[in-house]
Amino acid sequence: MLARLVLISIVCLCSMNCYSYQVVEERAFTKTTLQMPEICKSQDFAKTCRGFSSYLVSRFERSMVQRRYDELPPDTPLAMPDEDDLDLQEVKFDIKLLHKLNLASCSAEIRQVINKTSYNFIETFNINLNTKYMVTFNELFEDANLAAMLCARAIEDKYREYGTKNLQAVVTLTEVMPSNFIIRPDGLEFIFSPGLVKTGNNAEHYTVTLDKLEQAQPHEQWFPGFKNKVKKREPLKVKIDPLLPPSIQELHRQGKKHFPPEHAKKAEQSAPAAPAGEQSEQASEHSEIVEPDALQAQPAEEAENSTQSDEVKEPK
Fold it and tell me: How is domain 1-68+82-135 classified at the architecture level of CATH?
């Protein structure tokens, strides 16, 4: 039988108080141990926790089955592994609630042992409890691209002194699209797997505070305690010529360019004489300015005469 019976054992891990419990799920090719927070026993979050744990267990099983198939010679059947040959996964799952925001920030610290080699990584989820959808990074800021750059610079400044080989890759990926963060009242808490940005055996937590993200204008929906100090740009003040009629001045205030020929003529007479080369350019510019309201319809006879006079007579 390809699939084995799923073994689930729940063990309370207690010191003075029972703060979490453990779930062990064994599949055909993998064995996953999940350490769950006490909140996952509650009626409100039991379904959510089961969904996340099932997702992590099933994904690991599928990927390991595919790996074993890829390693087999052609036309070789896949054999069932012994219990000692199972690929192992350990998950430490956590949920932090922000009741005022109706937000649940979930994180999973994952360690996988594949072919006797250990791998560590982090996954995070921020869930809007009203809509049941995940909150993305782009929803948190007015300028999400700037916020991503600010997060990358803050992470680089924080961990540059440790000189890990993966730091630059982390910074570059953060610039493109930040990940592995949870939303906190004072900013964004990034979680890094052990040894990624700092040497050690424990996950590294670093919060990029709101004062570092001020220029990106965080949205008050997710950061209600943050008061935006970024001043909006004031529109440029347009200098209005007092010689223009009131109606034309109003057009200028609205940003519309309008300069009647009679005022252009006054401005030209009052302006100092320009060099010969510039005079021809100015004349061509003023000749193109036409006031539609100043034009009047020509009488029919004058229009006909002007048309005839403009015709070119061919020589006989």
Answer: 2-Layer Sandwich (3.30)
